[in-house]
Amino acid sequence: MTSLVFFYLASVIILGGGLTVILSSNIIYAALGLMASLIGVAGIFILSFAPFLALVQILIYGGAIVIVIIFALMLTKLEDFRTLSDHKHWPIALIASLVTLGTIIAAAFYTPTNLVSRRGVDFDKIAHELFSQWAIPFEVASLVLLIALMGGVIMVRKTNSRDDK
Amino acid sequence: MIELTHFQILSGFLFAIGLYGVLARRNAILVLMSIELMLNAVNINLIGYSIFMNASESHRALGHVIIIFVITVAAAELALAIAIILRLYRNKSSINTDDINIMKW
Amino acid sequence: MDSNNTIGLHAAWVIPLLSAAAFLIIVFSMRLVGFFFSDRNKLAMLAPIVSITAILAGFILFWLVLLDVLNFDGGSISMAWLIVGPAEIRWGIFVDKISVAMIGLVTFISLLVQVYSIGYMKGDRHFEWYFAIHALFATAMLTLVLADNLLFLYFAWELVGLGSYLLIGFWWEKRSAAEAAKKAFITTRIGDVCLLIGIILLFRETGTFNISEIFHIAESGEINNAILNSSVLLIFIGAMGKSAQFPFHVWLPDAMEGPTPVSALIHAATMVAAGVYLVARMMPIFELAPEIMLIVMIIGLITFIFAGSMALVMNDIKKILAYSTISHLGLMMLCLGTGGVAAAIFHLIVHGIAKALLFLGAGSLMHSISNETNIWKMGGLRHRMPITAVTFFIGAASLAGLPPLAGFFSKDELLLSVLHDGQYVVFAITLLGVFLSALYMARVAIVPFFGSVPKNLAQSHESGSIIWVPLVILATLSAGVGFLILPLGSTYPGWAEFINPKHHFEIKPWLMILSIILTLIALILGWSIYVKKLVSAKQISQFIPYLHKTILNKYYIDDFYQWVIDKCILTFGRLVALFDRVVINDTVVDGSAISIYLSALKTRVFQTGYLFTYGAAMAIGASGLTILWWVLLD
Q1: A94 at interface of B, judged by CB pairs closer than 8 A
Q2: What is the pLDDT of residues C441-465, one digit of tens each?
Q3: Which residues in chain B (73-92) have CB-CB distances under 8 A to chain A?
Q4: From the list A4, A76, A105, which residue is nearest B1 (CB)?
Q5: Number of domains in chain B
Q6: CATH number where A14 lies
Q7: How far is CA C39 from the centre of its chain?
């Protein structure tokens, strides 16, 4: 029962943060809403006996990603960001997202699954899987990060002489 | 008791919110944030199946492993997306998605 | 390959291969040898040495083949070429008296022309290439006369066409030479296509290309008469193209653009002889189609008279000789039309030698007087170039039919053959042609060599020995070869019986006297017109102005062809081009492109370029696919 209360609490934080992101007209509020939402997801991870994932979530999303986004805001024009307006065709977007929502919920109810009660996965088991069976994808992921880093640096580098023309 | 359905519905709502944000917001950084929301919705779904599925532990560990990869890829994607946005801002003085339509006829 | 053959038969198939080898050696090794010789003139002399060695060896082997034919009556050798279902196509050679005579003629004339060319073509830019294509041409011609099946013969026939194209267009930098080569090739090509159709028709009926087998089947009467007639006619059209018979004669006078030795080779012994040879070779099936024989005779007669009249009015020495060649080829065809194979082949040889002599003599003339060809600008050259003059007179007198030169005997045989056929009108017209022939020969021989020497030719002199030695050899033969017609001893029963044992040597004294009288009248007339000026040629031409003008314009045949090409063929071509432009290009090709372009104009509005459009479409599409998947699964 307690867990259910915590789950609803986390859900309210997540969805409230998400709604702030999509409805706020001030981009700083949107960023803060995103941060709240991501921390809520960390709470969900804790409820799922996955403290490591919760830690990663807070470190990477809450710490790194939101901070990078706020950096990006600082580097672009801040004064425009207080009066954000939505796309003029937003009803179509609403319909598209509602259709998707309906599809997902219907799928949730119709998917036949063989379920047991909630239990975690041993942390050392995850580590064992990650570094034995998924070692190569893990290494590839590190390469992806490296290349993304290099790409980002190259792309935002000071313009060279050819670009100035 | 928490059921898998809770996770699925929460995931669905968060995904729908993210999708709406991607489509309706005009600011590129907000679009980026909405994409993060969608990725997190997927993560919620993955962790839900990981803890409720009747399967061997190594299979269920796969859910966790994929979440780690999703977070990694999200970080990489964000780095590149921010770089693109900064570049765009420098060239066009705007990060409004409506101003970016050079792909059209 | 069969084993029980005599050495002569094996010698026969080597003859064309020698020339082919010479061609390949010259073409492929000249660059290679260039590395070792710095002096280009020394290097250039290798080409004639190679090709003349090959043709000389061929001429020596000819005597082996001849001995073999005299003793064993020839035969054939063949080996498999293609096996297509039930039909086996072989390549092989067939040696009989006609082909051995042709081998002798071709190798001999080629040999002399090549030797002569060393002097004539000295210093030409493409000296080696000249001898290479001479070797190629000899290969083609020798293969043609030896081939034992029609497909192989056609193969050689086309190769002859290629060789003539290359030789006529040898000075291809000159536009008129390139045009003439093209004209010769295209005109003979019309005949070639007909020949190919005829061969295929025969193959369809008999299932074989082998000439003797076709004769065998045809004689047993197994071929449908209509098909036999049409295929024989088509083969004759092929022969007409190559032998420049009316109305395909137009290419031959233009072919004079080639070097003069080439004219001697093509118009004397080889290319134009191919058509006559083909008809002679196919004579057994021609005889089964009497209507076609009549056509052969009529075409030959028309060509004989018609080309003879044109030879009488031309001013260019090479053109006169060219029309004279056409005329004599017509005479051979006429004789073949009456069934006189022996007489036709005999005249082919006599004419080949004499005409080669005349062309080479004309070449010698032109060589020493800076390539002047108009006979009215020459004169009195008999003192300057005595050897050329004497040999030229012998050649001309032989063709005019003056006894005891070879032409007299061959003409006598021809007239006899025509007379035997019993067509007295044809015989009378033939006599007229004989008269014309003697008259133009008198004209072409008298005008350049008598009278006064024009001032600009004062420096002219006799050509070098490499040029006059072949002339002397040819003149000797031209005078002497006629006696072959007579029975010489017990082994040689005279030409007619040698070729066809059913015939016998015969003499009709009144015919001989008639032909001598005609020739003499023509020669005296020529003498009085062109030397003594008793009768003015101009007055005669003014007496019949329209006829003169028509003949001078070559009976307007070239103009007619030009008109057909300009008005009919080009108009049709424009129609086709219009169809291509409007239907194929504008409607089908551009039309489909334009319809795609127009539909793209309509559909491209979906490609807004906005993130919103793509995202919404993607989301709705993904949901729709999921729902569809569900519906289909349930």
Answers
A1: yes
A2: 888 887 777 777 666 666 666 667 7
A3: 73-80, 82-87, 89-90
A4: A4
A5: 1
A6: 1.20.120.1200
A7: 37
